[in-house]
Design brief:
This protein has a 9-stranded mixed β-sheet. The protein has a 6-stranded parallel β-sheet with strand order 3-2-1-4-5-6, with helices on both faces. Helix 5 packs parallel to helix 6 (143-156) and helix 6 packs antiparallel against helix 11. The model is unreliable at 1-32 (pLDDT under 50). It starts with a helix and ends with a strand. The protein has 2 domains: 41-162, Rossmann fold (3-Layer(aba) Sandwich), CATH 3.40.50.720; 166-321 and 340-368, Dihydrodipicolinate Reductase, domain 2 (2-Layer Sandwich). The protein has helices at residues 4-17, 21-27, 50-59, 75-85, 116-128, 143-156, 170-180, 208-211, 215-231, 320-334, 344-363; strands at residues 41-46, 65-71, 92-93, 109-112, 132-135, 160-162, 187-195, 237-243, 257-263, 269-275, 281-288, 292-295, 306-308, 311-312, 367-368. With 371 residues, the protein is an alpha/beta fold. Bound molecules: NADPH dihydro-nicotinamide-adenine-dinucleotide phosphate. The site of NADPH dihydro-nicotinamide-adenine-dinucleotide phosphate has 22 residues, from helix 3 and helix 5.
């Protein structure tokens, strides 16, 4: 692999040999920007809610990305973030005026961390403003909208990434490395269990317009996405069954519990559960002819733990959002290719699967997938 260390080594060697190079690069740069190897990704967060707050905190430890702006509908939060993160007034927007961000050269990317049902329109507006877009998961609420977001970002010449933080998590990456090296033999089974007990019945997660669905959109997506990166293939069919014990809390269009099964071209099957009615449900299990891997917890904020038939996975415990944002800076500014993709196409695949899961629940039929 062409490692970052090699790359940095070359840069350092070049700066020692040609100390004037950096100066010359910035003198020729019309925006007086730093050469790309030194540049920070300057990010504005849209939606200063619970996860936005977590990302902002984590970004304080980033070395390649920096929080420089906010987009919010709540002026009191804007004030608080301005003083906490030293954000200048000119980098603060609301949902009506954030298209003006196109005239702001001090912001490179907008990280959309609002309710799922808003991501589509907001990401398209970010793209039209000429800024790179990072969307939280799910990227949106169906495959058609996902495609429209991809097209808008392509047209605008900006990158579209999705907050798949597990794609940078060291225990996860170690298991993927072992599977790629054939250490589990032929992988034939994956089990993904994703759930938590959801509280306040009035929250946006239980409002179809804002959430796009129930547990599947919010937490089941981790098993959908995880089945793909753990097995290393994209599924070709899906079957699914829905169970609803509380139709008052989980209204029409808001799934409480869904079991689903995925079939993969190499012969593997996945059996998964997504629910808003059980805690401690955060487990991955991968089985092959020569070995297995299990993770518990598998996708929460960590520390993530994993074992294989060879023993405990030894890997660093990291703050997921810090690593994610530093890696995204490399992806956006320096064209780095991550081990597991985090782009719009990756999210489109998950949304095609989720569309098919809902269809299978409705019809009771096996649904074929073409990803
Ligand atoms: P919150 O409800 O805590 O925050 C959402 C924020 O969005 C609000 O605080 C508000 O910020 C803004 N907002 C704009 N319009 C609305 C609206 N109509 N209703 C409610 N809020 C609105 O949600 P989360 O932070 O938990 O989730 C946000 C996104 O992040 C979701 O897509 C979710 O799936 C994702 N997420 C991802 C996680 C991960 O691990 N990757 C974990 C948790 C969430 P303001 O007042 O500033 O306008």
């Amino acid at each position: 692999m062409n490692s970052r260390r090699d790359f940095l080594g070359k840069i350092t060697a070049a700066s020692i040999a040609f100390p004037f190079l950096k100066k010359a690069a910035s003198a020729n740069n019309p925006f007086n920007e730093k050469p790309s190897e030194d540049r920070l990704l300057r990010v504005a967060i849209m939606g200063l809610g619970s996860y936005g707050t977590r990302v902002a905190e984590a970004m304080q430890s980033c070395t390649k990305a920096k929080l420089v702006g906010v987009i919010s509908g709540t002026p009191s939060k804007v004030k608080a973030w301005q003083s906490k993160y030293n954000i200048p007034e000119k980098n603060c927007y609301n949902y009506s005026n954030f298209d003006e961000i196109k005239n702001n050269p001090d912001i490179d990317a907008v990280y959309v961390i609002t309710p799922n049902g808003l991501h589509h329109d907001e990401v398209i507006r970010v793209a039209k403003a000429g800024k790179h877009a990072i969307s939280e998961k799910p990227m949106t609420v169906n495959a058609q909208q996902a495609q429209e977001m991809i097209d808008a970002c392509k047209k605008a010449g900006v990158k579209l990434l999705v907050g798949y933080r597990m794609h940078f998590e060291p225990h996860t990456l170690e298991i993927i490395k072992m599977r790629k090296a054939g250490e589990f033999g032929k992988v034939l089974f994956f089990q993904g269990l994703s759930g938590f007990i959801i509280g306040d019945p009035t929250q946006w997660r239980l409002n179809k317009k804002l959430s796009g669905g129930g547990s599947m959109m919010d937490i089941g997506i981790y098993s959908v996405n995880g089945s793909r990166y753990m097995i290393g293939e994209d599924p070709i069919w899906v079957t699914a069954q829905e169970t609803k014990n509380n139709p008052v809390k989980f209204k029409e269009g808001i799934d409480e519990t869904i079991q689903f099964q995925l079939g993969f071209p190499g012969g593997a099957v996945a059996s998964c559960l997504s629910t808003y009615s059980l805690n401690y449900l955060d487990r991955f299990f991968l089985d092959g002819t020569e070995g297995f891997a299990q993770m518990y917890p598998s996708t929460n904020y960590g520390p993530i733990r994993g074992q294989t038939n060879k023993g405990e996975i030894i890997a660093p415990d990291v703050t997921h959002q810090t690593v994610q944002m530093d890696e995204m800076a490399d992806i956006i500014l320096r064209g780095k290719k991550p081990e597991v993709p985090v782009d719009g196409e990756e999210a489109l695949k998950d949304l095609k699967i989720i569309d098919a899961i809902y269809e299978a629940c409705r019809t009771g039929k096996k649904v074929k997938l073409e990803l």
